[in-house]
């Protein structure tokens, strides 16, 4: 067995550029989402409006996911990401202009709200391409032997940005207001655009360039459903995220239940990402691939318990701690899922497999936000969160009982065999 280097991926210059770029993009995207949530709830005072934000992003992201994966697999990844960031900058600029004092005076609340939803919808279209492009580009920057390590650092960078972005958004809303906070987001996107030129153009590894789109999409979906480890991990995580979407209701908790204002809102929003980042940083030194299936089940069960505690809490710091532990358990889930995807996905299918992943997991975040908004409207905010956590626990227990093969999933043998093959 080859001794693992926890900094293996960081020894490649382009990967370091990529991590900085990734951090800035996620930081800016997280800021923008938090600012939009705050602005929409401030305008409407209706939790259902927060669910609609999720719905406006899930519809295009889910609908375009498979098509986006096909496009990614057929094109050069660096330049495709450049186009995505360029379009992201236009959305950020549009939101900045929309929230200017002159527009707020000239437009009615309803018109402004619909315009925000329209920009969120366009962001959903764009997000369908972001995930597969980034996932595919990483595999072209580092050699295959360090994929698991690169996945850990990539996920850790995502989580760090998710920690700081929401917290910073909470402070800037308080200090500068919504309008100038969105100006900062626009500046960050432009910086990311410039940094991408530090990564060279990459070869296209797909041997089936020009393949008919229907045949290409069928091949990608067939591969995911045939690979039981991938299918099981994605399905379990999708259900957990769908019913555990308490984060979408944080503006309600911050403003009406805990009464902590924008700074407390930023802390609540950042707490899960802090926990997840700490977990993934530790896993760079202590891999969790052995008995991965059982660990994934335990982690998602812990996630459900944390959501229930958060929903029942009326004390700010208890709520923060509960969200922190929801992030710890979610971090374990993310590392295991990303390792499965990187190891078991062929190079020429990374875009399509990543798209299926975004349909299962990424889109379930927004669908979960919509579910949380609807259940909060019907049941009340606290009851909706507790209901979601309870459904997560039931899902984990059911999966553990009916799928003993998933409980026994062990990635360590795959990793050891892969490393031994590379050294022979």
Walkthrough of the structure:
- It is a single chain.
- The chain is mainly α.
- It has a single domain, classed as MFS general substrate transporter like domains (Growth Hormone, Chain: A), CATH 1.20.1250.
- It is built from 17 helices and no strands.
- Helix 3 (77-98) runs antiparallel to helix 7.
- The radius of gyration is 21 Å and the shape is globular.
Secondary-structure topology with pairs:
Elements: H1 13-44, H2 47-74, H3 77-98, H4 101-106, H5 109-141, H6 147-175, H7 177-195, H8 213-226, H9 228-243, H10 250-257, H11 261-283, H12 292-312, H13 316-344, H14 350-379, H15 381-402, H16 404-407, H17 412-423
Q: What is the CATH architecture assignment? A: Up-down Bundle
Topology order in helix (H) and strand (E) letters: HHHHHHHHHHHHHHHHH
Question: What is CATH's topology name?
Answer: Growth Hormone, Chain: A
Q: What would CATH call the class?
A: Mainly Alpha
* Mean pLDDT rating: 82
Shape: globular
Determine the fraction of residues in helical runs and give it as a percent range. Answer: over 70%
CATH superfamily: MFS general substrate transporter like domains
Structural class per helix/strand content? mainly alpha
Low-pLDDT ranges? none
Radius of gyration: 21 Å
How many structural units, i.e. domains?
A: 1
Number of continuous helical runs: 17
The tally of strands reads 0
β content, as a range?
under 5%
Distance between the termini: 12 Å
Largest sheet: none
